[in-house]
Each structure stands twice: as structure tokens, then as C-alpha cells.
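In this supplementary section we document a worked example of the pipeline. Step one takes a protein sequence of length 459 as its only input; no multiple sequence alignment statistics are reported here. Step two produces a three-dimensional model, which step three serialises into C-alpha cells for compact storage. The input and output of this example are shown verbatim.
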Amino acid sequence: MDFAPLVQPDRGQSARAITVVHPDDWERWLAAQPERTRVAVAAHRVTGKPGNRAILPGDRAEDWSALLVCDEDASSPWKIASLPGTLPGGTYRVANGDSGPWLLGWMLGQYRFDRYRKGTDTEARILLTSDPARVEEATRLVAATATVRDLVNTGAGDLGPAELEGAAETLAKRHGATLAVTRGDTLAAEYPLIHAVGRAATRERQPRLIEVEWGDPAHPRVAIVGKGVCFDTGGLDIKPSAGMRLMKKDMGGAAHALALAGLVIAAGLKVRLHLLIAAVENSVGPDSFRPGDVLRSRKGLTVENTNTDAEGRLILADALTKAGESDPELILDYATLTGAARVALGPDLPPLFTDDDALAGDLLAAGSALGDPLWRMPLWDGYDDMLKSDIADMVNAPEGGMAGAVTAALFLRRFVPKGVAWAHMDVFAWRPTSKPGRPKGGDAYGLRAAFDVLRKRYA
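The serialised model returned by step three reads:
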């Protein structure tokens, strides 16, 4: 979908008015309105509660305007995101506020995933803004968010490791970046954990490490790493049907990494970008890796596999090792890694793990300012002992499940070079219930926050 036409600079062109009223201001606003407005409000049973809306008459029948009662802060990108789905096609302007902060929500309120079912509503809702400088960046952020949504919403039968490779190839060709893909015997030799997790898949869906590099080699090196498990059966520790239902979304980390890389390149940030996606399908077959197997990592550490359903951290371990070999200044990784993260913080609030206080502060501040929140969780050294193995350097999944999101992050930390700034985001990549501008289905979390930090550091 082309989102660019949905927001346009306000040059005084004809447009319907949108009035946004806070519940605290409702009585005062209503008292100042003409009788026809008060009658229309009463007919719509609008009482000033958040979410109330109405169509208000004007001097002539064709001069109607829209009313929304909303209690969100004026800086929230979602303030008017509920309107595009309820208004007819046409051009609109906010009559009593600055629409600049709300452009993203307005555009994402018109997002539709139509790969498998074509929609009947093709009318565009255009919002005018008196702050045209915001339009280009908002459009890029919307397109990146839509990229995550589209990839995650696509069924696993249509999106495997080869299709993730295709998405990376498209990104590389569009921007003159270089693409490298490692698979087959070379993958088994050089990235044994990625190969072990994906080796039971069919030949058409064989595992691979996908790398894209872009930018001036003289600039600081930044690595973005994504977990690309295109479908997760759980392996021989197979998931129940309820647990497998949404496992098409287990490549959500890769979707975030691709989208963030695209934002970095489009903005021309002064970095040497290294995008790494470990792409596999965790299948059940004669060649599945087994509980109790001891696997050697690219770093040389041995891992006793205590749970084949804790595969994401295994493939990320090899990818993080590769990222660290090029002396990066910063590594960011995204992964739909643990159910424990959802138990702790729910679907909307991704845990952020990092030992770098400055990086944590920047990410948290950006998330708060942009309505894209993160929550810092501890890399608690005291739980490192949970990763002990009797026969190998470490286990991939401690018994008991306590502090599962923390121990997963501690596992990953062992594959990040000491002294390198690193942040791990355990995202859900899925919205279980709809909210304004955020329909049920695949979604991006922590994407805009991370890009804001990179933009400010490397612009």
C-alpha cells in the first residue's frame, strides 16, 4: 500500500473539519456550540466519554464535520487513529489542534492486510497538515511498520527462509547494498547452531544466514540481528496445537530487523550497517536435533540442548557471534524469544535487556516520547548459574522456567563481545486485540524507538 498520498501539506484546499475534544473539556466545549451542534450531539448519544464520535451539521447539508472525544495526550500518535476507519473517503484537517504528531496513526489507521482477502473499501482518507516537514519521516515509519505487519501476517506456507532471503535481496538491490547468504554444508561448518535448528526442514526451506551490508566502511559499524524462525513446531519437544497456532509470527524479529535496516538506509545515517537474519524452520523430521544433543556454536562454546523449543536463542547465538567479529560499535537484536516475556509484561510492552545504561536510557526515553514503549528488565548475573550444564559449557533452557526471559537474554549475552553496546528486545510481534491504528495481527514493537536512537546518534 502506498501511504504517501494519505497526508499532504495544508495549502488551504477544501477539507472537512475534525474537532478533537478532551473529556475534561467536554462541558465547556458543548456549551459554546450552536443549537444545531448540541442537537446532533444528543442524537448521537455523545456524552463526552472517550471514544465518542459524531457527524456535526454545518450551514449547508454538505458542510458537515467530524467530532471525536479522546483522552489521549496530544503527543500520542494514536490520538485520531480511530477516525479513518469510520469516515468516508475525502480530505480532512484538524480544526483545533496540530495534526503533525498524529500523522502516523492516521496512516496506520488505513492499513489493511489484503494478500488473502481483498477489501471493498478503496477510498483514501487524506489528512492535511500545517507541518509538512513531518510528512516524509512519518511516511517512512508507517511503511516500515507495514513491512513488519505484512511479513508477520503472511502464512508460513508462503513465507519461509527463502522468502526472507528474497525480502533482504529486495532491500539490498533497492539501495545498492551487498547481500551474502550462507547455507548448506558451509552453514553446517560455520554456523552449526543455525544449521542444527533448521536441518530437519525440507530442501526448499533449508536454513540460512542472510547478511546485508551498506554504508561507508569508515563510519561506525552497527549490527542489527533478527530471529527468523519462519515456523516453529517446537521440534521434537513439540508444541500443542494451541501453542503452534500463531507460530507463523516466530520470524517477527527478522521482520523488525529488516524494517529497521530499511529506515537506517533510507535516512542515510552515517553508519556501516550490518543486517543479519538467521532464517530457519524448526521442523519435526528424521534429522531433527534432539533433546540431550550437545551442539557446538560458532564461538566454540558447547550447548547442551535441553529443549528443542528454545531454538531461537540458538540461532541468534551464531548470528550475534558473526556480528561481533567485525568490531561493531553497537548491536541491536529483535526476537520473538520467550513466552515468559509475555507472562511478565503482556503483549504490548517488550522487555529491553542491556548492560549499557546510556543505551537503555536513550531507548526508554525514545519509546516514551513516541508512544512505542519498552521496559528494561535485568540481566541479573545471579541467574547465570541456571545455564550450567553437567556435560557442556551451558544449557540452552534451564529447568523450571523461572525468570525465563532473563535467562534467555543471559544466554545471548555470552555471544556478544565484551565492551560492545548491545540491546536485546524480546518482542511479541503480534497484537491480540485491535486498538485505534493497530489492528489485530502482526505489529511492530520498539521499532520507532530504536530508529529514533540511531537517528540521533548517527545523523
